[in-house]
Amino acid sequence: MEIDKEKVDEAVLALLHLTLHDEGRAWKSFDWETMNRLHEKGLIQNPVGKAKSVVFTDKGLKESERLLRQLFAKQL
């Protein structure tokens, strides 16, 4: 099976939004390859380090909320 990495990135970004805390930080509990791609796209700050959380960029914070609604919100 071939995996669409773009869809994985979108889902992970949306799920990161679920762990949002301290005005723009999220727990970084996803695989490093995906986290590095999100960093390269300018959506999160560099995930490498001892911190257990990662900081969203302004663009990433907005996009993560949009994707959370798009992918997981119940349609009324």
Q: What features would you describe in this structure?
A:
By secondary structure, the chain is mostly helical. The chain has one domain (5-72): Arc Repressor Mutant, subunit A (Orthogonal Bundle). 50% of the residues lie in helices and 8% in strands. The protein contains 3 helices and 2 strands. It has a two-stranded antiparallel sheet with strand order 1-2. Helix 1 (5-18) crosses helix 2. The longest helix has 15 residues, at 58-72. It starts with a helix and ends with a helix. The mean pLDDT is 93. Pfam families: DUF6429. Residues 4-74 form the DUF6429 domain. InterPro entries: DUF6429.
What topology emerges from the helices and strands here?
Layout: H1 5-18, E1 25-27, H2 32-40, E2 53-55, H3 58-72
Antiparallel strand pairs: 1-2
Helix pairs in contact: 1-2, 1-3
Derived from helix and strand composition plus strand pairing, the structural class reads: mainly alpha
Radius of gyration: 12 Å
> Which fold name fills CATH's third level, the topology?
Arc Repressor Mutant, subunit A
Gross CATH architecture: Orthogonal Bundle
Instruction: Indicate how many domains the architecture comprises.
Output: 1
Number of strands: 2
Number of helices: 3
CATH class category: Mainly Alpha
Beta content comes to: 5-15%
Mean pLDDT: 93
Termini separation: 34 Å
Task: Record the strand order, biggest sheet.
Answer: 1-2
The unreliable regions are none
Overall spatial form: globular
Helix percentage range: 40-55%
Largest sheet: 2 strands, antiparallel
Order of helices and strands: HEHEH
Domain DUF6429: 4-74
Protein name: DUF6429 domain-containing protein
Pfam families: DUF6429 (PF20008)
